[in-house]
Amino acid sequence: MPSTLPSPAARFAALPSLLLFALFFAAVAISHLTLLRLPYYWDEGGYYVPAALDFYHRFTLIPEYTNAHPPLPNVVLGTLWHLTGLSILTTRLTVCAFAAAALLAVFRLCERLTTASVAIAVTFLTAVYPIWFAQSTLAHADIFAAAFTLSAFALYLPLQETDRRKLVWVAVLFSLAALSKETAIVEPAILAAIELVLLLRSRAKSEHLKRFLALSFPVIPLIGWYAYHHYKTGFTFGNPEYLRYNATANFTLAHISLSIYYRALHLFWQRNIWLAILLAAACLFLPKRAEIKSLAPDALRTIGLLIAGNWLAFSVLGGALLTRYLLPVYPLILLVCVAIWRERVRQWPALAAVTAAAFIAAIWLNPPTSFAPEDNLTYRDMIVMHQEATAFIAQHYPDATVLTAWPAAEELFRPDMGYVAQRIKVFPVENFTNAEIQKAAQEPGKFDTALVFTTHYTSPALERYLMKHPQTQRGREFAEDRDLRPAEIAAILHGEIVFKDSRNGEWAAVIRFSRSYEALKMPYFAH
Fold it and tell me: CA-CA distances (angstroms) from residue 14 to 11, 98, 120?
């Protein structure tokens, strides 16, 4: 007689969502324990944290530099700092909480579409996927938007008939996602387009009309934000430089075509996700297990359209081709893969274990290709390099005027970024290419120290390849844009390297110049 006792996975799924959230939060925080007190990284210090500090200090929704990102992350962080005190630990734990909420949404979504065992596997794979893992403590708006978006998915995707209460929550959650990051409007827009097509084709028009209206609602608060932004600043979508970088400069066929290629790599190749997809493709050649119910065709179609819609949308939207824009899509890809494994292979947990091992390895191991440091823990190497270099300057040359580039200029000039205790004057340059260093050489009296570092990260293996193949297109681009090495910069500027360190392709150095002059008095303001 078969057992009627629920499986361990089913018992786990039966736990209250609040308890599951607490468990997920503890797991995220503990797994990121060594990262919780790191100073702010790159875009954190360049926009998101300064914007939140503007709300914290002045309760202004629009940051000083009027980039038109919606204000919800700023409000959340600024409010929590008032309650707990201004600290990096509060920031990191807040992001952990949103990452945990997103994982809870992934779990509930997968449980409702498949089984508790699949939900556990997909949630774990999502948590250890390097891009997701790295973003789980970084104060970027994308993790906030992902938490709200995935929570909306968990309510909407299994919806079989109109549930007004659920539709209201879907509208609210997608609105909060859009007010966290404007590009999060892509997900409800895709789903609204699906409902519109069904509305035109189906006889049950009232059902699809209600869903269409709920999914269309998030555009209203987003329009309200832009109207308020225009009223306050005169710019609807941010200042002209921001708008050009993130929108108008990208509307060329060449840029979009290249972006489609790179977004395909981000979605289907990056950080060993290809392994999960390859295993799923191989499983399709095996017969289905009769006792296993497949992922519902409607759900599979919707997930496919969401993946394709994000692929296309983020090939056009956004200036930098950053993988974090695709955070809500990775769990959907993994859900499809794990569902296929389960319906075709009895020992599918072994496939999940192999994939998890590949993901965990990729958190630390780098491929011989180009990628953003924030795609795994390479970003930590960069932070540590900058910590050591800025600490050296603060200890030995606290009164220096330092030639450096963003984000180190922020790190030295703004103590609230977590690198220095007292403000240090800077002389900013765009980067450390030969052209920029030659320009700086024309003004030797304006700085007496330099902090140079990796501004265009390239893995050591790829750099060696490009250096050996200078006639290729990538080789020429690398030669034109590469950062000069500390010894080259010291030679051009006639300085002495007094500090140098490197980690896995990230490097930083401090160069000192023996000259006496009146230090630059003009204060530095960040980009």
Answer: 5, 22, 12
Hey, CA dihedral for 147, 77, 266, 128, is it positive or negative? Answer: negative
Strand partners, 429: 405
Nearest to residue 272, comparing CAs of 371, 193, 186, 348? Answer: 371
- Among 335, 351, 370, which residue terminates a domain? 370
Could you say which of 370, 392, 422 is where a domain stops?
Answer: 370
Cα–Cα distance, 521 to 380 (Å, whole number): 33
pLDDT (0 to 100) of residue 523: 44
Whole-number Å distance between alpha carbons of 356 and 74? 34
HEC string of 244-309?
Answer: HHHCHHHCCHHHHHHHHHHHHHHHHCHHHHHHHHHHHHHHCCCCCCCCCCCCCHHHHHHHHHHHHH
| Per-residue confidence (pLDDT) for residue 4, from 0 to 100 | 61
Average pLDDT over residues 131-151: 98
> Are 398 and 417 contacting, i.e. CB atoms less than 8 angstroms apart?
no
Indicate the range of 92-101, 117-126, 478-487 predicted with least confidence. 478-487
User: Where residue 490 sits, what CATH number does that domain have?
Assistant: 3.40.50
Does 3 map to a domain? no
pLDDT at position 524, please? 45
15: Cβ–Cβ under 8 A, 6 or more apart, which residues? 23
CA distance 431 to 405: 5
Judge whether 519 lies within some domain.
Answer: no
- Phi, then psi, of 158 in degrees rounded to 5: -85, 5
- Does 162 have pLDDT greater than 70? no
For the stretch 452-474, pLDDT in tens is 999 888 877 777 777 777 778 77
pLDDT in tens, 257-286: 989 999 999 999 999 999 999 999 999 999
Q: What is the spatial order of strands in the sheet that 401-405 belongs to? A: 425-429, 401-405, 449-453, 506-512, 496-503
What is residue 515's predicted lDDT score, i.e. its pLDDT? 65
Same domain, 292 and 396: no
The answer to whether the beta carbons of residues 153 and 146 sit under 8 Å apart is: no
Domain hosting 431: range is 378-512
How far CA 522 is from CA of 426, 427, 428, 446, 519, in Å, comes to 9, 9, 12, 10, 9
How much is the pTM? 0.93
Q: Is the dihedral of CA 471, 474, 480, 485 positive or negative?
A: negative
Residue 519 clears pLDDT 50, i.e. is over it: no
**Domain annotation covers residue 179:** yes
Contact assessment for residue 73 and residue 240, using Cβ atoms and an 8 Å cutoff: no
- Is 522 part of a structural domain of the chain? no
Instruction: Lowest mean pLDDT of 23-32, 425-434, 457-466, 499-508, name the range.
Output: 457-466
Are 326 and 404 in the same domain? no
Cα 71 from Cα 26, distance rounded (Å): 27
Instruction: With a cut of 70, say whether residue 211 has pLDDT above it.
Output: yes
Q: For the chain, what is the domain count?
A: 2
Secondary structure class of 79 (helix, strand, coil): helix
Residues 6+ away with beta carbon under 8 Å from 46:
406, 407, 410, 526, 527
